[in-house]
Structure to design on (166 residues):
């Protein structure tokens, strides 16, 4: 399988690996050559359900800054709007072997999950990967007290919600 010209290729001599990520079993691996353009925590129902978690943390990259080093043939795509396993963008991407959620693929962006990146010490997450806000916080199942902006929907396109202090 070929993901298309939006992604960097292994033959791209100008691509210099900055960070690497992989699924749980290691069958799928990719690297990025830049810091994320943003990082967010999403509380939408799709993310809650598909991750079996109260929220999902994503670091957002331009597709041109992403290249796969292993396992492109093991990618599984799921379009939640159509409830179909297909690469119809935007869609969820996972490893077909171990089931690890790998990313959300948008039309122009790759939303990688920072917990899959190898930063050496997992407690030393680079500042560029730290979330700048919460989105779809109106759908939250738990309150998060962290001082970050909390948007009812998309960042800067919805109502900014007040953080509840208990």
């Amino acid at each position: 399988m070929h993901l298309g010209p939006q992604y960097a290729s292994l033959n791209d001599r100008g691509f210099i690996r900055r960070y690497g990520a992989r699924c749980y079993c290691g069958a799928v691996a990719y690297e990025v050559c830049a810091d994320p353009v943003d990082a967010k925590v999403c509380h939408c129902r799709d993310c809650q359900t598909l991750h079996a978690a109260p929220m999902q943390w994503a670091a957002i990259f331009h597709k041109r800054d992403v290249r796969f080093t292993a396992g492109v043939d093991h990618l599984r795509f799921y379009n939640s709007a159509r409830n179909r396993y297909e690469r119809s963008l935007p869609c969820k991407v996972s490893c077909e072997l171990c089931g690890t959620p790998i990313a959300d693929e948008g039309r122009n962006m790759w939303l990688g999950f920072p917990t899959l990146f190898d930063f050496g010490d997992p407690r030393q997450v680079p500042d560029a990967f730290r979330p700048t806000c919460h989105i779809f916080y109106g759908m939250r199942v738990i309150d998060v007290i962290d001082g970050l902006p909390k948007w009812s929907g998309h960042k800067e396109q919805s109502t900014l919600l007040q953080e509840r202090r208990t």
Q: What stands out?
A: The chain has one domain: 28-161. The chain has a mean pLDDT of 93. The radius of gyration is 16 Å. Residues 45-51 form the longest helix (7 residues).
